[in-house]
Amino acid sequence: MAAREILHVDMDAFYASVEQRDDPGLRGRPVLVGGDRRRGVVTSASYEARPFGVRSAMPMAEAVARCPHAVVVPGRMPVYAAIGEELRAIFHRFTPLVEPLSLDEAFLDVTASVRLFGPARAIAAAIRETIRAETRLTASAGVAPSKFVAKIASEVAKPDGVVVVPPDGVASFLAPLPVRYVWGVGRVAEGALAALGLRTIGDLAGADARTLARRFGRGASALVALARGIDDRPVHPARRPKSIGEERTFDRDLTAAELPPRLLAQAEDVARRLRARGLRARTLALKLKLAGPSREGRFPTRTRRTTLAEPTADDGALFAVARALLDAVDLGARRVRLAGLAASGLVRTRPEQLALFGAAREAASRRDAAARAVDRLVARFGPDVVRRALPRAT
Q1: I need a surface site. Which of 57, 118, 152, 385 has the fewest CB within 10 A?
Q2: Which H or E element spans position 326?
Q3: What is the C-alpha to C-alpha distance for residues 272 and 312, in angstroms, rounded to an integer?
Q4: Which residues 6+ apart lie within 8 Å of 366 measured at CB?
Q5: Is the pLDDT of residue 146 over 60?
Q6: Angle between helix 358-381 and helix 77-92 axes, rounded to 10 deg
Q7: Is 312 left (phi over 0), alpha (psi -120 to 50) or beta?
Q8: String of b and e for 266-300 (b: at least 16 CB within 10 Å)?
Q9: Is residue 271 pLDDT above 60, yes or no?
Q10: Please, what are the domains in the chain?
């Protein structure tokens, strides 16, 4: 049986790189994406910040202490999500077997694609070149006969590189790497393995699973198998999501009159993500979290939902429904700390569903083309490059 050709494609310092792309003043400078300097957490650190020991998931206060001259930015999740959808569309040009792990990384099984696009190395190069051309961002890729080895290869390739591990080179590739590269080996397990004299993957591959079982239990055999490059798990294509939503906790509590512009922005973001996946929604739900916690420390929540007359991915239509749902909530004098929209009952978009006849079909086609043009601008320049004007309430 021929070896599988598995790719792991991972964007380089994704959130931070997007911020540097969109703000020339950040290029070449250490950038930290995350929350408040005192209470936040680093979600992404640029490569300029990493020599100072800064990493993702580190408390922002510690990161700033390590790198005082870093620029801290809050992050723009709608932008990252839009680019993530664009990346997924690029992956699907080369294979239907795409298993996303997050917005910025995925496994691809290109075993059957080599007949169309050439060797797996060439496919990885083409994907990286396409990403660079269409998003102005860089990605690293690992090519190997298994998911485990492909993921490690992409880590070794960073930043902006590609590493190919052929079937007969798996053992020699893995052997010198630290055991922390093995899935399931965290800091505690790494220390325990070091106490047994097992510091590299090669050391672990040669260990006796029964001896390790006394320390690690039934998971020992899985660790040894991975260290030996044994990983038969297939690439599982992403299933259709059950819902697509967007919610936000506001910087300050808002009145009901202040909510429509926020709901409009959320409707645009949800619609854009629906279109990127070729989906439309039958149901829309509104979620409001009210200000002022209860005695138990919980914030009261109000939800409303409705089923649409026709499935849609049009931001104007979604906003009209959201506004009607908002009007159905009696807030009185209560203010709102969080609002969100969630689209569900998702169905695939078919061209014949856009409109039935003549002028209606032509108008729908124009709206769809305009929406997709805006989607491309947002993916490149951010959600504020084009915003729909707030319609008047009727």
Answers
A1: 57
A2: helix 315-327
A3: 11
A4: none
A5: yes
A6: 110
A7: beta
A8: bbbbbbbbbbbbebbbbbbbbbbbbeeeeeeeeee
A9: yes
A10: 1-163 (3.30.70.270), 175-227 (1.10.150.20), 243-381 (3.30.1490.100)
258 is catalytic: no
Closest by CA position to 300, among listed 342, 248, 335, 262 = 335
**DSSP H/E element including 63:** helix 60-66
Q: Which residue has the tokens 């060797």?
A: 119
**50: helix, strand or coil:** helix
What's the residue count for the chain?
Answer: 394
Cα–chain center distance at 253: 28
pLDDT in tens, 335-346: 999 999 999 999
Instruction: Quote the tokens at residue 370.
Output: 């305009």
The residue type at 385: V
| pLDDT for res 357 | 44
Residue 140: exposed, middle, or buried by beta-carbon count in 10 A (0-12, 13-18, 19+)? buried
- b/e burial code for range 77-107 (CB count within 10 A of at least 16 → b): bbbbbbbbbbbbebbeebbebbbbeebbbbb
Read off the tokens for 126: 């083409």
Distance CA 286, CA 143 (A): 43
Residue of 19, 48, 86, 105 marked active site: 105
The tens digit of pLDDT for each residue in 72-121 reads 998 888 788 889 888 988 999 999 999 998 889 999 999 999 999 999 99
Q: What is the pLDDT of residue 189?
A: 86
**Hey, what long-range contacts does 288-291 have (CB within 8 A, 24 or more apart)?**
288/326, 288/329, 288/331, 288/336, 288/338, 288/339, 289/249, 289/336, 289/337, 289/338, 289/339, 290/331, 290/334, 290/335, 290/336, 290/337, 291/253, 291/334, 291/335, 291/336, 291/337
Residue in the block written with tokens 């007359």: 309
What is the rounded (10 degree) CA torsion for 180, 186, 188, 189? -60
Residue scoring higher pLDDT (295 or 271)? 271
Distance CA 253, CA 48 (A): 36
pLDDT digits (tens, 9 = 90+) for 35-53: 777 767 899 999 999 999 9
